[in-house]
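thought: fold this chain, then report.
action: predict
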Amino acid sequence: MYYYYKNSTHTVPMLLLLLFSLIVMLQFQAKTLALPGPSCLKHCGDVEIQYPFGVGDGCAMKGFELNCNNTKDGRSFLTVFGVIPVRNISLLDGQVRIMKHISSMFYNRSTKEIDYSKWGRNLSNTPFRYSGNSNMFTVIGVNTFAFMTDNYNVIFGCVSKNSSYRAQDGKYFGAGWCRVPLPGDMYNDDVSFSPLYNTTDYYTNRSTADRAEYQGYAVVMETDAFQFKTTYLNTTAFLDEHDDGRVPAILNWEVGDETCDVAMKKNDSYACISTNSMCVNSSSGGYLCNCTKGYKGNPYLPHGCQDINECAAKPPPCTGCKNTPGAYSCPRSFNVVALVVGSSIGVAIVAIAISCTYLIHERKKLDKIKRKYFQQHGGMLLLQEISLKQGTAFTIFTEAELIDATDKFDNRNILGRGGHGTVYKGMLKEGSLIAVKRCVSMTSEQQKEEFGKEMSILSQINHKNVVKLLGCCLEVEVPMLVYEFIPNGTLFQFIHGSNGCHNIPFSTRLHIALESAAALAYLHSWASPPILHGDVKSSNILLDENYAAKVSDFGASILAPTDESQFVTLVQGTCGYLDPEYMQTCRLTDKSDVYSFGVVLLELLTGKKAFNLDGPENERSLSLRFLCAMKEGRLMDIIDNRIKNENDMGLLEEVAELASQCLEMVGERRPAMRDVAEKLDRLSKVMQHPWVPAQHHPEEMESLLEESSMVSLEMIGTENFSMEKRIVQGLLESGR
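observation:
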């Protein structure tokens, strides 16, 4: 076949034109993606280097550059970021095993102080992140409390208790060591040791015979790579047994920061360039490349995916096997037509029978698993409680209903992510909107057993300023919770978003604060048993269509302990809102919620965020900045200019004084949440009564409004309220 130019006797074969175009296209793409040349290293030490990773200029995709270093004895070893050793690279799983330093603390006999050696690296703006599924945060030591902060500024950690005599090799009692799962994939691994537990007093008060050494360790490391030994407690064995004080950890990686659909449209940067390759979306928004079925190799290189010769297997899949691209074929035998037909019918009947039996068996097996999860999460108890209490608006949803409502939990329906789970928007068949929360895994059998009991209690409590729990799904491994859908987002977005704070008058801010306080006061004082929220912040207060406040996200909540021995050893919270006393004692109390609510009050008064990493060091914490301004008489310097009004100055000062009381360092000095709500209720009524001068003293305002001060709280107590199951990860048995 030839193509003839007009007015010319010369011809050019079409095949050559196509071939030339293909070569130009591949050269352009290779240049854009910086594909490795023949001189690029294939191995460094005993580690195979596979593109997109590479060593040297032009040998790696951007962000995947490695170094091949040499030791004094002539050995070579591979590193990422120039200093972290790499043990292996997996293209199929999108993972890299690295060796990372252990953070430690040691008692210095000379200075009689504790020396810290802390290691961490922020992986933001890199293709890497610490795998939440493959790693755990591990703490070793006697009386050692270490903690970290995840991508959402949620603090988590655990305490290894002062019970070394109970420690056993390979056993987990929370004595001498503890572990806690990561909330998810993380970009940083900065470790901190709590000065309350890790003190020199603990060392000096121990007898000479009892104190060999005082040290503690903390590190994010590969889950399966750790086995506890008692020798780790009073010696340096933990460091000595690991390569240069390093332990293995797993990094997830991905190419690009966009989904497959978006990446495929960008020919100049799309990484899955091999014939017979495919794109796979990753969990964090980027993508990976894999070879299609029947092929293996490197999908990031041209022609990197090669056909698998199934017929070369020992033994081959069939006699007379013939390999085909991506598959294989087996010859058919046509000796006797009748025999073949009869055999085919017989085989078909047997196959149908086996298939039906298998399907019935699998259906029964699935039903059995669902029943197991349902009973395990306390579903029978919950059904019994619902049947005994007529009129309880609570539904037990099936997994199929929630899958259908959320369009198979499509990422486009995600409303938010947090340390306790992901929330999806959904629509039931009758058209009502819902919010479905898929919780993080429960790590304790006791947590699973208590889930149904707590749900039966929580489903009966009602309050209008708490997001209503419509029901739950218990037939899955990790229960799902179903809430009413709140349309106007969070208070955080309302204050700090692009369409936020500048349009919010002081009266609206005060009303939102009052409704939030009323809900928390109800949890503390009127719910039975009382409930501690544990993570009060502006992003956990939702606003409905009328901008009424709805307290939400009870993933860190607990039922109020009945005695002092019941406390949580796993500290959870958010930077800027976390009660310093809770941080030091690991005891969550009602006054911890009061402190966090005080920070929310500051956000409403100032229009500023609770914690700002981008600001100067002395201005990062809003609470510290506010308390300093109050002490120096500079309150109006920090109040939002948009709500400063001569008529409201007295009220602003009253609310600011209330916030400072909530932010007392000692919990006993803080007011109860009920008193906070009453105070805000009185101040709100002052704004509604112009004949009450704003500059009156608090005693005068209270006297004028004494008769109605408690009406709103008691009426609110009869409205809708609900809450979800507390999911506390890494709860130490010795700390209960």
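thought: worth noting. The first helix runs from residue 14 to 33.
final: tokens above.
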